Amino acid sequence: YPDTYGTIGDYRALAKKVHELGGQVVVAADLMALAVLQAPAEFGADIAIGNSQRFGVPLGYGGPHAAFFATTAANQRRVPGRIIGVSRDADGNRAYRLALQTREQHIRREKASSNICTAQALLANMSAMYAVYHGPEGIKAIADRIHRFAQVLAAGVARAGHTVENASYFDTLRIRVAASTTAEEIHARANERQINLRHIDAATVGVTLDEAVTRDELAQLIEIFGGNGGEIDTAAGSVAATASESSAIPAGLARQSAILTHPVFNRYHSETEMLRYITQLQGKDLSLANAMIPLGSCTMKLNATTELIPITWPEFSQMHPFAPADQAQGYAQMIGDLEADLAAITGMDATTVQPNSGAQGEYAGLRAIRAYQASRGEALRDVCLVPESAHGTNPASAVMAGLRVVIVRCSGGNLDLADLEAKAAKHADRLAAVMITYPSTYGVFEHGVVRAIDIVHAHGGQVYMDGANMNAQVGLTSPGHMGADVCHLNNHKTLAIPHGGGGPGVGPICVKAHLAPFLPGHPALGATTQGPVSAAPYGSAGVLPVTWAYVKLLGAHGMTQASKAAILNANYMAARLRDHYSVLFANERGMCAHEFILDTRVFAKSADVHAIDIAKRLQDYGFHPPTMSWPVPNTIMVEPTESESKEEIDRFCDALIAIRNEIREIEDGAQPRDNNLLVNAPHTIANVSADNWSRPYSRERAAYPLPTLRDRKFWPSVSRVDDAYGDLNLICSCPPIENYE
């Protein structure tokens, strides 16, 4: 809506009929077109989906871009992925939070509604800022200009003897060329002017315009079709000035309702004000620019400026994903290099960078396994063994791939090999795969991993290795060396792409030779045995220069040293903290891998303190909390990465040790269980500067628990958020304007 050839269909009768039959209507919509076309909900759509790339995000040879999924209130509890909900904090102030669906896979696992883990949060914010800056009037003006140019082009090619086949359109024309020429000739003329047009068939050409098209380019387009480009000013005067007045917009489908009514879209329309608004928002987020982010199983490492700069170059950022191959040779060389390097790193034989996230990589890898087995007459293999410690995306991806999940027990932080062998034997005739994470999600190198792989192979299954913890493997071992058949990598973890608040992500999969023919293909790449898992041939290619630069700058020696440093940092921290907290899992030598779990469950009984209280109190110390309550409830998992200095690691350890002493005060009765430094955390500037202070500890202890914080303090912007209230009162729509006055 409009369709791929530009036609604006009237779907009101269809929507009514679908509803009468008990169905729902999903509309794939063009975000820019919706500024001037009737909103999908207004003609009966229940769900609208699409891509926000048109709102100010570079093409990037296919991505990354943020998709959108909008739906009615009746569906809001069924929406997969992330929803920003409105809750309140301990002081009764409005607070935004990621709602219950945020990590649905870790809660519902194989019953989850999707395997979505990575969301394109950074790109969503870019598109949002495009809308904030332009506002409703600016967006409508852009859309009207695009449509006006499309009308001028339609008139120009018609005068040149060609036929615009779609009578209705917003920005896209399907043009049947005149009998006196051919589509091939039109494309040849376009190529001479370095303009790409869409190949439809031997007699038909597609053209789509956007706000970046200039008057000169519009004139050139008309000349390519044999028209007079000098007449565009005259033609512009004869077409409708706005889409609402245009005969190319079907009657009744021009937008009448308002857009972007939230106050934020009507406030910041100068560069100065926009800069201040972005800086204000940035000040609310603790990033690696402020302190280490020790999120276990997330690998929040440095994203070096040197690696990031190339993604801003137009040669990478402005490339269309379906540009002719001879125009994308630089991308081809970089992607070829990277695929070979990733195969070498993982000990595999072939790579695809198409998946946009680790979870999508899981799905693609499992699909390759199923296709391989089907090619051998083993299509009935549909059982996937998944350890109970696995990332929640593992069982969710298995279900998406059409597999039945059978859970394997873990014992003492290790996979229970006896249970694995029993279940592999029980399901031998239908065993498709096992999904293993190494090091395990408990933060240990399992000595039984090779034995586990052998067990599954002996019973006819394939081995999928989750690459979430590859930062402890690179240069030291590899999935292929251990015997795995397929693995994925998280480029936004191990290979230095920024997390971006949840995205962009890239989840390449690497496979042994027997699975290589079953990697995802793409129509743009020619005939393949498997269809794509992403819309673009190389997924989020626009951020691949970051990983390419990381690999080339460090090389084999540097990446091996990075793995060693990550493991060393984790073990140093575990050793410093072991006298104050129980480290939940370690090997027989008392060592962890690149991350470790601190058992905070004992404090629930001794002090009424839970993992969330420690996490909130860490904010007062200027740190992002570690991963909380996963994979073991009411624990915290710490991963320092190789990027952190000993000074920063010690700062974090000092904070956790100080918090343990605060817990001890509660245990000893020096602070009440229901009114103390932890349960009241975090403490905002508003809290500690209030006229009244009735808490049984000083303002100084609340705000500056360590002397170093006086020189370097990150202030939380809200008090403790009421999660239960937010889950019970999910609010996705905009608050009323008076809330902002």
Provide an overview of this structure.
There is one protein chain. With 741 residues, the protein is of the alpha+beta class. Helices cover 34% and strands 12% of the residues. The strands form 6 sheets. The chain has a 7-stranded mixed sheet, with helices on both faces. The chain has a 4-stranded antiparallel sheet with strand order 6-7-9-8, covered by helices on one side. The protein has a 4-stranded antiparallel sheet with strand order 19-20-22-21, covered by helices on one side. Helix 14 links the parallel strand 15 and strand 16. The longest helix is centred in the N-terminal third of the chain and has 39 residues, at 121-159. The radius of gyration is 28 Å and the shape is globular.
Features:
alpha+beta, 741 residues, 22 helices, 12% strand, disordered C terminus, four-stranded antiparallel beta sheet, seven-stranded mixed beta sheet
